[in-house]
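thread: overnight batch results

M.L. [08:02]
morning all. the overnight job finished for the chain we discussed friday. pasting input first so we're all looking at the same thing
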Amino acid sequence: RIDHYETVRLRSAGQPVPLASYPGVARGTIHSPDLPAAAPDRVLDVYKKGDEAFVPRHFLIYVDSGDISPGLRNRALDQLKDFITRLGPTDTARVVLFDRLPKELTEWTSSKETLLSAVDKMEKGVGMSRLQNQMQTVRSIDATRSRQSRVMLAQTYQDQESVELDTMLKDMRAQLATLTPLPGKKAFLFVSGSLPSQPGYAMFQYA
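M.L. [08:03]
and the structure it wrote out:
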């Protein structure tokens, strides 16, 4: 491994040839964070398949941190980081975080540094708003003997879950609309602990 391309000397026909950059290459793909600094002809060589160039890809990354436990969240974010490092020079991504309310962490960008920084911010966040609400409701139900009170607690929980999930789904639709004008292949990556089709149903069963 050579960490500094300035120390490399290359000659062609006996004449010295300057190196514009020295990005890391793994399995035929440039994965270095400083990819924009790589020489254009080297990037094209890597991302051409015969005479056909790769089609640009656009990834909408939507992370629902309100329903992810810390262990699952850390594993998911690690996988997201690995995924981001594998993006090509024509790929773009957008990162959105949802925890009670949506928060756009990046616009559409091809910058790996910007995308990785967004993931770092999520790692430092708390999240788990819906999980905490769920656990608190379970504890309240366990401490209540009245059947009517238990059902009321479950109803309140269901109402809160429904409102929050409706907010998230509406924002998802708005975020997906940003994919429409982008040329190339498009993908939606949703990261969450769960997405119940009947919010609060399990809590009623528990009550």
